[in-house]
Write a structure and sequence with these properties.
Strand content: 25-35%
CATH class: Alpha Beta
CATH topology: Aminopeptidase
Radius of gyration: 16 Å
Helix content: 25-40%
Number of helices: 7
Number of domains: 1
Order of helices and strands: HEEHHHHEEEHEHEE
């Protein structure tokens, strides 16, 4: 069955573009993850906040290498993409920003992020999210980006607002963490938002 509505982004566009390296405000550079990032990924997932809010644990070099290896095929399948957020001067990894649940025909994706403890409070996440949004809207041609976080995660809410995401509402008991069900704030940006 075919849809009478034209796709927002044609199939193959993400693959055709290839994953870019993106400059971001605040002296940041977003680059695709590389196999040599195993140690920083292990360090990131050893952080209790990253484990808790992202519901992921990685404790071995093999697990970190597997985590890194998923991004290339995910991009080729046009389902997801993830960038290492780095300091443009030193190349030190400061965090991660990603597009997941990419649906080209509908022109929608979900934005996710985390920062290493030493990079928190420096607008790293919001700068990275803004850069990915610019690229997703202006180059890829998506129409809507969504961002969700637990209502108990106030820093993530600040990132969403600073990155220009409007609050749309609360999804009740939408995600289960180790301490039980969490309500989730849903934010969005659409093409043309300031």
């Amino acid at each position: 069955m075919t849809s009478p509505v034209e796709p927002v982004v044609p199939v193959g566009r993400l693959r055709e573009l290839g994953q870019p390296t993106l400059p971001a405000d605040g002296g940041l550079l977003l680059r695709p993850w590389a196999p040599g990032d195993v140690d920083v990924v292990l360090r990131a997932f050893a952080d209790p906040d990253i484990q808790f809010w992202n519901l992921e644990t990685l404790s071995t070099r093999e697990a970190a290498a597997d985590w890194l290896s998923q991004w290339g095929p995910g991009w080729q399948a046009e389902r997801q993409g993830s960038w290492a957020v780095t300091d443009a001067s030193s190349a030190a990894v400061l965090g991660r920003v990603a597009l997941r649940r990419v649906h080209l025909a509908e022109g929608v994706a979900e934005c996710t992020y985390w920062t290493l403890p030493e990079a928190r409070g420096r607008a790293v996440a919001s700068g990275a999210v803004r850069a990915v949004c610019r690229w997703a809207f202006e180059v890829l041609g998506l129409h809507r980006l969504e961002l969700q976080h637990s209502t108990r995660n106030a820093p993530s809410c600040r990132v969403a607002r600073r990155a220009g995401f409007a609050m749309e509402g609360t999804r009740r008991e939408a995600l289960r963490h180790v301490d039980g069900w969490h309500d989730m704030h849903l934010h969005s940006r659409v093409a043309g938002d300031p």
